[in-house]
Amino acid sequence: MIAKTLDRATKMILAAKCPLIMVGGAASRLDQHSIAQIRDIARRLGIPYFASQLGKGVMAEDSDLYMGTAALSKGDHVHVAVDKADLIIAVGYDKCEKPPFIMLEGGPKVIHIAYQPASFTQAYRPHLEVIGDIGSSVTALADRLERKLPNAGALLPLREGILALNCDGADEEMGLVTLDGLVHAVRKVMGEKDIVALDNGLYKIPFGRGYRTNHPKTLLLDNTLATMGAGLPSAIVAALRYPRRRVMAVCGDGGIQMAGQELMTAIELKLNLVVVIVVNDGWGMIEAKQRGKGFPNYGTRFENPDFVKWAEAYGAKGTLVETMADLVPALKTAFEGGGVHVVAVRVDDSKYKRLLAGESDPE
Ligand SMILES: Cc1ncc(C[n+]2csc(CCOP(=O)(O)OP(=O)(O)O)c2C)c(N)n1
Ligand SMILES: [Mg+2]
Questions:
Q1: Is 92 helix (H, G, I), strand (E, B) or coil?
Q2: Which of 139, 251, 300, 326 is an S-S bond match for 199, by CB 3.0 to 4.6 Å?
C-alpha cells in the first residue's frame, strides 16, 4: 500500500515543472534524525522550500534553497513562488495551523506527507496523502528521485527577490523603530540556538518572514489559536529548560497585560530573561483588521502603564527605547546584566498595519 502511494508520489514529482517543498509545524516536533532526513530530501533533489510559521527552522534558512516563510495565508512575499509552482510537497503540515497557502482550483497539485491524514478544508485538499513515518517517506522518495529531476530548481530565480523584501529597509532605518528594524536588532543579539518566544500581535508577521533561523523551536510562536498572553509563559519555560541559552519574550503592550503578572514568576525562579514589549498604545492587529473591513477603529486604543516603573515594581530592571540607534545597545545591556529585564520599545508599525488592512482576512 505505502509502496503504491510512493509510486504515485514519485510520478507526480517527476511530472512537475515547478516543484516546491513546504515544511509545516508537525515537522518541527520530530526528533533530530527525522529532521535530518527532511533536510536531506531538499539537498538530494535540489527542490527549493519554504516554511509555515510553525515549521520555521526545520530546514536551514541560510541555505540557497530557502525561499521564505509564509507569515500570511496569501499575498505574502513567498506566495510569488507558490503561485508559480505546479506541485507543492507539503511535509509535516499540521492541520491546526493557519494555512501557509490557500489551494485554489487550477492551482498547484499538493502531496501531503505526514503522520496524520489531512482534514480536508476549503483551504487544503491535497491530491495525494503519504501517511506514515515522515522521515522514512521522504527518504524513500529521495532514493527514487535523486538525479532524475531536471526542473527541480525552476523556482530558484525568484528567491533573491523574495528574500530582499523580507527585511525591507531594516538596515537604513535609524530613526523610529520599525517592526522590520526590531526583527533585525533581535536577530543581531540572539545567537544561533538562542530562543525568541513571541506573544500574538502584528509583530508576528515580520518575525515570521524576517527572523531567519536554522534550528527548530528557536522561534516559538503560536498561529493555531494564537492566544495573547502566551509569550511570557513560554519564554519562562524555555529559560528553565535551556538555562545556558539567551531567551527573549516579545510581547505587545496588549498581550503583556494579559499575563504580565508572570514577571513575578520569572523573578522568583531567578531566571535570566529579557522581555521586549512592543509599544503602540493599542491592539495594532485588530486596528488593521477593522480598517481592512472598512470599519472605523473602535475600542482598540488604550493607555499603558510606565513599563520601566512597572518592571521595577516587580524587582526587575526596565529600559525604554524610542529610537533604532538605542535598540541593539539596550538589548545587549539587558542580556549582559542578567536577571529579568524589561525593554519597552516604542514602534512605528504603520507599514504592517497598511499591509494587513489591505489583505482580505483569511481567518
Ligand atoms: C486571548 C486573546 N484575545 C484576543 C485575541 C485577538 N487578538 C489578536 S492580536 C490582538 C491585539 C494584540 O495587541 P498587542 O498585544 O498590543 O500587539 P499589537 O498587534 O498591537 O502589536 C488581539 C486582540 C487573541 N489572539 N487572544
Ligand atoms: Mg499593541
A1: coil
A2: 251
- pTM of the full structure: 0.95
Q: What's the rounded mean pLDDT across residues 180-206?
A: 97
What atom in ligand 1 is closest to the CA of residue 280?
A: 20
For the segment 245-272, what is each residue's pLDDT rounded down to a tens digit? 999 999 999 999 999 999 999 999 999 9
CB of residue 283 inside a 6 A radius of ligand 1? yes
Report the alpha-carbon distance of residue 179 to residue 348 in Å, rounded.
Answer: 7
Residues, beta carbon < 5 Å, ion ligand 2: 252-254, 280, 284
| Domains of the chain (ranges, CATH numbers) | 2-160 (3.40.50.1220), 167-356 (3.40.50.970)
> What DSSP line would sit under 22-59, residue for residue?
EE-HHHHTS-HHHHHHHHHHHHHHT--EEEEGGGTTSS
pLDDT per position as a tens digit, 113-147: 999 999 888 899 999 999 999 999 999 999 999 99
